[in-house]
Design a protein that fits this description.
The chain has 233 residues and is α/β, with parallel strands linked by helices. The chain contains eight helices and twelve strands. β1, α1 and β2 form a beta-alpha-beta unit.
Length: 233
């Protein structure tokens, strides 16, 4: 699958290495070296995927991601040298689709790129027209890629929408984190199941009246999560 990829990394040598591997994999690739240039290039060029280093001058990658998520659904793969879980997951909270921790192998980068592009092109399995799913206060429209709560639309990232779409097909079914990962991006289970917890936490902020005491998006301890109709009274 040929795609337009924008690489934003302040290390010219590192960025050029990434560019060469992506070009060899068949992608049209552009490189910039600071956050503001990344934001401008993403707005003007409308890439299919942005590979975004966190630590950059002018505007860091987290701020670029935060700004772009208010304007665009471009795929974002973040590169970070930070090793704490909080730093790694902050990008996902801001709407990044995946992340890699430096150092990483070029082959892993290419594999993650392929996975993101394949998942995005495949999307949610196509349902028939008019098949919006109403689960309590939450409505999920897989065709229109829309979620509403009590009739009010909410904005979801790709990962968040994929989770709701999957769970809305089978209300009250308990999904493991590994199963939900398969529906989002198919990350390596051993290192990324925690990302599902982040997506669920963000979803609760958007769909629950009280995220600290959820009534529909419930935790099944030791197993995973389920989507229920909520209180009947």
């Amino acid at each position: 699958m040929c795609a337009m990829v924008l690489v934003a990394d302040d290390d010219p040598r590192h960025a050029e290495g990434i560019r060469r591997y992506l070009v060899a994999d068949g992608h049209e690739t552009t490189v910039v070296h600071d956050g503001r240039a990344a934001l401008d290039a993403a707005r003007q060029g409308r890439p299919d995927l942005l590979i975004l280093d966190v630590m950059m001058p002018g505007m860091d990658g987290l701020e670029v991601c935060r700004t772009l998520r208010q304007e665009s659904n471009v795929l974002v793969l973040m590169l970070t040298a930070r090793s704490t879980e909080r730093d790694l997951l902050l990008g996902l909270e801001l709407g990044a689709d995946d992340y890699l921790t430096k150092p990483f192998s070029p082959r892993e980068l290419v594999a993650r790129t392929r996975t993101l592009l394949r998942r995005a092109s495949r999307g949610v399995p196509e349902p028939t027209a008019g098949s919006s799913r109403q689960i309590g206060r939450i409505s999920v429209d897989p065709v229109g890629h829309q979620v509403t709560v009590d009739g009010e639309p909410i904005e979801c990232t790709r990962g968040e929408f994929a989770i709701l779409a999957a769970m809305s097909e089978q209300p009250d079914r308990v999904f493991t984190r590994a199963q939900l990962l398969h529906h989002t991006r198919g990350f390596d289970r051993s290192s990324t199941e925690r990302t599902i917890d982040v997506h669920v936490m963000n979803l609760r902020r958007k769909v629950e009246a009280d995220p600290r005491h959820p009534e529909q998006l419930l935790t099944v301890h030791g197993v995973g999560y389920k989507l229920t109709l909520g209180p009947t009274s």
